[in-house]
Amino acid sequence: MAAPLVLVVLAAVTVRAALFRSSLAAFIAERVEVVSPLSAWKRVVEGLALLDLGVSPYSGAIFHETPLIIYLFHFLIEYAELVFMITDVLTAVALYLAVQDFNKVVFKKQKLLIELDKYAPDVAELIQTPMDMHYIPLKVALFYLLNPYTVMSCVAKSTCAINNSVIAFFILATIKGSAFLSAVFLALATYQSLYPLTLFAPALLYLLQRQFIPIKLKSKSFWLYTMQYASLYLCSLVVIICLSFFLLNSWDFIPSVYGFILSVPDLTPNIGLFWYFFAEMFEHFSLFFVCVFQINVFFYTIPLAIKLKEHPVFFMFVQIAIISIFKSYPTVGDVALYMAFLPVWSHLYRFLRNIFILSCVLIFCSFLFPVLWHLWIYAGSANSNFYYAITLTFNIGQILLISDYFYAFLRREYYLTHGLHLTRQDGTEAMLVLK
Amino acid sequence: VCTSRFWFNYRHVANTLSVYRSVKRLGIPDSHIVLMLADDMACNPRNPKPATVFSHKNMELNVYGDDVEVDYRSYEVTVENFLRVLTGRIPPSTPRSKRLLSDDRSNILIYMTGHGGNGFLKFQDSEEITNVELADAFEQMWQKRRYNELLFIIDTCQGASMYERFYSPNIMALASSQVGEDSLSHQPDLGIGVHLMDRYTFYVLEFLEEIHPASQTNMNDLFQVCPKSLCVSTPGHRTDLFQRDPQNVLITDFFGSVRKVEITTETISLDRDLAAVESKFPKDELATEPLKYAEQLPVAQIIHQKPKQKDWHPPGGFILGLWALIIMVFFKTYGIKHMKHVF
Known about the structure:
The complex is a heterodimer.
Chain A: H1 2-21, H2 24-29, H3 41-52, H4 67-76, H5 80-115, H6 130-133, H7 136-146, H8 148-155, H9 160-176, H10 179-192, H11 200-210, H12 220-248, H13 253-263, H14 274-279, H15 283-299, H16 301-307, H17 312-326, H18 332-339, H19 355-379, H20 384-418
Helix pairs in contact in A: 1-5, 1-7, 5-7, 5-9, 8-18, 9-10, 10-12, 11-17, 17-18, 17-20, 19-20
Chain B: H1 10-25, E1 36-37, E2 72-73, H2 79-87, E3 107-113, E4 115-117, E5 120-123, E6 127-130, H3 131-143, E7 149-155, E8 171-175, H4 199-209, H5 219-224, H6 228-231, E9 236-238, H7 252-255, H8 275-278, H9 299-303, H10 316-334, H11 339-342
Parallel strand pairs in B: 1-2, 3-7, 7-8
Antiparallel strand pairs in B: 4-5, 5-6, 8-9
Protein name (chain A): PIGU protein
Keywords (chain A): Endoplasmic reticulum, GPI-anchor biosynthesis, Membrane, Signal, Transmembrane, Transmembrane helix
Family (chain A): Belongs to the PIGU family.
C-alpha cells in the first residue's frame, strides 16, 4: 500500500508546486474564503517583521498566531512553501495510518459482534469486508491531498494546514491508543485554535473503549481513566502555554489569540456565519450574541457523546465537522479536513438521502463565492447580502451533509441489530425515522 | 467663507458680506480677496427685496452693493476647494481671481461662518472640515511660505474648537463662542422673514465701521468686541502662536491694505549692500528671533539613517524548554531502549 500512497503524494506535491510557481498563488492568497484573519500568511510575515523591528507582534490587531508558530516560522520563513507542502503530506500520511488502524479496529469489533450473535440474520450485505476496506486509507489520503480546498489552502500558505496536521496527528495518536500522545496533540490543537477542546470527549470515549472500560457513571475505573486523561491534557496545555510565555516574556498572546477567537472583533467576510450577524448588530447586543454563537460550537458535544458513545470515531468526525462549520473564522481548509474522512463512511452510501443535491449545493456555492465577491466588492452591483446568502447556503449544505451522514450511520446501526426488513406489529413494512 | 446654503441661513451670507464690505472699504482690492458664498441670497426667489442682502433690520445697510465679486459660488464652496485655495494646490486652469496669491510677506485674514460643532465646520450640509485638517492646511501654508501672519476669525457654534489644533507660528484666532456654547443670531427682520446677522459678526461689523485706514486701533480692542452681555456666548481668542503682542497689532494690518508711503526728494542708489536702506524701515517688534523656514524640517534626522535593528531571536530558555519537552514526549512514547538508535 505504500507505493500508491507515494504516487498520490507525488501527484499532490506536483500540483502544489505548479500552483506556487504560477500567478494564481497571489490571487488565491488573498481570497477571503481561503484565508482568515487567524490564518493569513500575510499576517504571519507582518508579525515576524514587527518582531525584527523590536515591537511585539501582538500589539495592534494584525497578528493572531500563537508563539509556537512564531518560533516555527522564524527559522523556516525562507522555505515557507516547502513547509506547507510537507505539512500537507504529513497530514495525509497521518490520516492514512489512522484510518488503516481504524479499519482493523472496526473489523475486529465486527467479528466480535458477529460471533456474539448481536447482529440480525439478514444483514449480510451491510457487513463491511476487508476487501471493501482495503482501499479506504488510500482514498482518505487522496481525498485530503487532492481536494481543491486543501490545494488552495496550501497555495495560500494558510496556517490552517498546520492546525489540520496537528488534529490529524491527534487522531492518529488516539486511534493507536496512546493516551499520552493523544493528550499532548490535543493540547497542541487546542492551543492553536481553541475549538479542538470539544474533541476531548470523542478521544476519551475511544480510549475508554480501547481499554475495555465500560462507560458507566458509577464505575470507578471510568472516572479514574477520565481523570488521568484529563490531567494529562490539562497539564500539557498549561505547560505549552507557560512555555509560550517565555518566547516573548509577555502574556500578550492570550488576548490576541484566544480573546480574538472568542470575541470575534474582526468582521472580515469569510465562509462562516459570524461576520454578517455582528456587522449589523447593535453594540449592546453583541456580547450576548457572541456568547450564544460560541456556545453553539461547544453545545453539541454532550448530546452527541450520549448518542454516539459506542462509535467514538464517527463522533470525532461529526465533531470536527461541527467545529469547522460553526467556528468563528472558518476557511475551506477546515472543510477539507472533515471531507477527507468521507471515504471511511462510504459503506453508508446506500442510506444517504440527499447526497446528490448536497454535493451540487456545495460545488455551486464554491464557484459562486468568488463570483459574488467580485460583484460585491469590485463591480459594486451586489451587496453583502448576496455573499451572505451564499455563505448561508454553503453552511446549510454542510450541515445537511453531516446530518445526512449521521442519520445514515444510525440507520445502519439500527438495521444491523434489528434486521434489514423492518416490520411493524401488523406485518407491514416499517420506515425508520430520525426523531 | 460662507459655508451654508438655503434661505434660512441668510445670516451667514450676510455675515460674510459684511466682513467683505469692511475689508474692501479699508483698501483691499478684489484681486486680493477670495470670497466664497455657498448660496445666492440676493437673487434667491424667496428674497422679498431682490438684489440686496441686508445686515441690519429696517434695511439700514445693504452689504450686497454694486461691486461684490464672488469667487467661489454655490456648489463650488467645498472643503476640497477651500483647502486647495489655502495650500495653493490648484489645477493650472484656475483663474487668478480664484487663487490665493500670497507670499511670505502677506498678512492673511480668514473669516469663516456657518454651522459648526466641536471640532468641525459643516460645508453645504453634506461634508465637514475638521480642526485638524484646518491646522494641517495652515502648516502647509507656513511651510510653503504662503503667509507672514494669519488672522483667523470664525463665527459658528462652538467655534473655539476650530482653532484648538493650530500649531503653526504667527496665527491669531478669534471665535464667536467657546466649546459647548452656541453662537446666536441677532434679531430677525420681519420684512424679510429670517435672521439677518449673527450676533458676534454684527458687533464686529459695528466695531469695524468705526475703523478707517489711518486708525491705530489694535487687536486687544477686537478681542473686547461682543462681551457676554451682548453676545450670550463667550467669544474666545488665541494668541499664543503669534509672535507679536496683540497690543501692537493694528486692525488695519489684517483688515485693511495700508501702506506707509513716504515721499522723499533725495535720490537713493540701489546698491548691493542694503544695510543703509533697511535702517529706514520701522523696526520690527519681534521680541523673539525670527523663525526661519529651514528649521521647520528636521533635515538632520531625515538624512541620518537609523542603524538597522538586530534580528530578533527566540530566547535560549524557550528553545531549551521546547526541545526538552519534545524529547521527553518522544522517549515517553517510544521507551528508553530506543535511545541507542538515536545515538
